[in-house]
């Protein structure tokens, strides 16, 4: 862990740089000059030298998708490998900030440079905005030294990129790491197929929460849509309507067709442990693999990284069960 002396600032858009328009707040370019002006006004702020890259067009993070994640990886690599940066700060909207932090955690496995994401609940320049506090707080953390890996900085906290979630909208302290049980086996090493240098392709993924009254026909429609992986949000410790034989058969048939099925808990502080209840054991027997205590953001990002690397169903299930960057094991 060493102090950054040349940080890449990668601006993707989001509230932090938005400006008012006739239709409301919208993403805007030109954030580099605003950052430089703010730094000139406050020379007491200890921050590394920085270079600026911008993903164009800047977006509202509600529009974030896999294409943007892959573009971020490309820009991050270029800033480090071509421009000589030794740390990366990603400016990002808050709606999908935790999703991007998780995805980058798995897309940048083996990357020996710290990557910190931050954003703001209020635009830079707005009254009582948290924008500059978050931005310069993240830069000061990098200047002091941050371990390699992906992190999220918000409201004075530096958090693990694959564990954090957005918890609310009414407070500037909007992000946190919920106490979810994390235990299991760590991967002995990162396989070459998952190294950050390996190309990735887009993946057709879906998330489905279970709920009272869910019908097998609804599940079958999703599983017949060309989806490659489904993240199922189960009740409690990994249960669901196990007395619905048609629903269980739909899961089993999909798994036999090669669709990856993963399970996490709907509970904010929950984790999947299929063997506790017979209902959970039946889901597991139908082809679901346990996500343990992973968040939705982490499990979705991990599925994307594994399937996007072209791994087979068996290979995905093997690596999904192991901890790759701290997402499953404390």
Describe this structure in words.
The chain is α/β, with parallel strands linked by helices and 330 residues long. It folds into two domains: 6-176, 3-Layer(aba) Sandwich (Rossmann fold); 192-320, Rossmann fold (3-Layer(aba) Sandwich), CATH 3.40.50.40. The protein has helices at 31-41, 66-81, 97-107, 131-144, 216-223, 245-256, 278-285, 296-308, 313-320; strands spanning 6-13, 19-21, 24-26, 49-59, 87-91, 114-118, 149-154, 157-160, 165-166, 175-176, 205-209, 229-234, 260-265, 289-290. The longest helix is centred in the first third of the chain and has 16 residues, at 66-81. The protein is elongated.
Helix-strand layout with pairing:
Blueprint: E1 6-13, E2 19-21, E3 24-26, H1 31-41, E4 49-59, H2 66-81, E5 87-91, H3 97-107, E6 114-118, H4 131-144, E7 149-154, E8 157-160, E9 165-166, E10 175-176, E11 205-209, H5 216-223, E12 229-234, H6 245-256, E13 260-265, H7 278-285, E14 289-290, H8 296-308, H9 313-320
Parallel strand pairs: 1-4, 1-5, 5-6, 6-7, 11-12, 12-13, 13-14
Antiparallel strand pairs: 2-3, 7-8, 9-10
Helix pairs in contact: 2-3, 3-8, 5-6, 8-9
